[in-house]
Fold each of these.
Amino acid sequence: MIRVVVPGAGGRMGRMVIDAIAATPGVVLAAAVERADSPDVGQTVDGVTIGASFDDALAGGDVYIDFTAPEACAGHVAAAAQRKVAGVVGTTGLPAEARAAIMHAGATVPIVVAPNFSLGVNLLCGLVEQAARALGEEFDLEVVEIHHKAKRDAPSGTAIAIAEAMARGRGLDFPSARRFARDGDVGPRRSGEIGVVAVRGGDVVGEHTAHFLGPNERVEVTHRAASRAVFARGAVKAAAWVVKQPPGVYSMRDVLGL
Ligand code: NAD
């Protein structure tokens, strides 16, 4: 049995991950954790009492699955590496400090980091890269994403991953090509630009469209997530995969063998 630790157990994704663990043979919920000031501490989920110490929770785990908050991520990664517990990190909008902590911990333990755990989105990234390459410079590249109104980071990590895939396909340097907002007298569109637009509202789980806008024709490729369960199932699959890997930092495309 692979023993999984779930911080953020009271959150939208944390609850879904706990359900996905219960539905997956070979994995078991070892511990659930929340912020010390969360009303969920002390509640019971799947026979496990939600605690307030991530470090204590790690003692009984083989792997942890993190859908919490950007500011919590670096501490979680370092604590897990210290205890040789593998990681699955789904939290998005990570600051540079958290990304550096992941790279550092990857020398000691295996970690999967993914802005999106769905099969569909990871497939879409491959298709988008291929399309950007095939369609060439005459086609302008834009990404539009829509998410529920509680989402904190923008644009979504998935939209950034799609834009990066476009840049790879077109052979563009992503940091110089990216255009995350347009406001005011922005002038005509530069060629070699990749625009990313974030729409927020309602309860949309996650929708991403890659636009390829050419002369007299355009191509749009869309992924729509109907439930967070798709990300939770993918994260549990990643957890079962990552415990068998040597130390390193892996992507969901590695897990899916894409
Ligand atoms: P949420 O606010 O509903 O849940 C986050 C939970 O984490 C909260 O219950 C909060 O109390 C808890 N938390 C915060 N800091 C903590 C800490 N230090 N220790 C323990 N618990 C802590 O948010 P959500 O919608 O579940 O999303 C969480 C993150 O996952 C976001 O960054 C979101 O963008 C990301 N996300 C990623 C994917 C993916 O496929 N990679 C999919 C959906 C959401």
Amino acid sequence: MTRIAFIGLGNMGSGMAANQAKAGREVVAFDLSAEALARAKEQGMTPAASAGEAVKDVDVVITMLPAGQHVRDVYEQAILPNARKDALLIDCSTVDVDSARTVNRDASMQGFRAADAPVSGGTAAAQGGTLTFMVGCREQDFAEVEDALKPMAKAIIRAGDSGTGQAAKICNNMLLGISMIGTCEAFALAESLGLDAQKFFDIASKASGQCWSLTSYCPWPGPVPAAPSNRDYEGGFAAAMMLKDLKLAQEAADSSGAPTPLGGAAEALYEELVGRGFGGKDFSFILQMLRGRT
Ligand code: NAD
């Protein structure tokens, strides 16, 4: 049976690790939170006393941590010194491309196979096992990475070598942030022009303005019942998380010299929304800031 160490049992990691256990894999779990560890035990996982302890005798190590610094620290202090050299190391957190490449390079220098595999899909997809994984790894390691991720996934796509999974993730989320703001501006303008929001939705969703932010995640309450806009913008993908990803995209644009003027504008608008105290709201709540309702 595949033995998996899962480190980081937060909003995303708890559901992902549970799906590994449900698939019949033996999961050794670790998180700094005692509450998260107790929940993991209830779900059939073996709680470990430390990250170093968790990775000692497993085939696969999966990390789902907040940001680059956490991943670099856990790799350097716990995983690389303690894991078996034949273990496959997969980081699913969203981090900067440089951190992903650094940990992958350090791991390969010590003889490990490593992959960056950030996800698209929120906590519902993490719980439902329907995440999309964007993978950066060597071609010859991909089949094994795919097999390890399968119980948590709807789709697993190899983007290229080390770091390209993170590159795909931040490019996608920059596009999402920009398209959400564009959708919100269009609703706000429609309102000022006396155009009914539902009518605008009916027309734009069948016209060239159609996009995912409009038809699957509509920021105006009503037209898409499952969207967070109908639940007072609670749950979903937090504005603070979107800001984190937009910052990563801008950092990457600065270091690579790519021009991203709309990405920069989107970052500034989300910075303002989070600065006004709405970082916990779903990112589509930016509609209300643009309407002057914050
Ligand atoms: P979270 O803050 O809920 O969970 C992170 C967990 O890591 C926490 O339980 C924390 O205690 C634990 N942790 C921190 N440092 C640790 C350490 N040194 N050792 C062990 N555990 C440690 O965050 P989340 O929402 O689960 O997100 C995790 C990652 O997934 C982030 O990189 C995020 O950007 C990305 N992501 C989140 C979503 C989402 O909708 N929440 C969607 C896609 C991607």
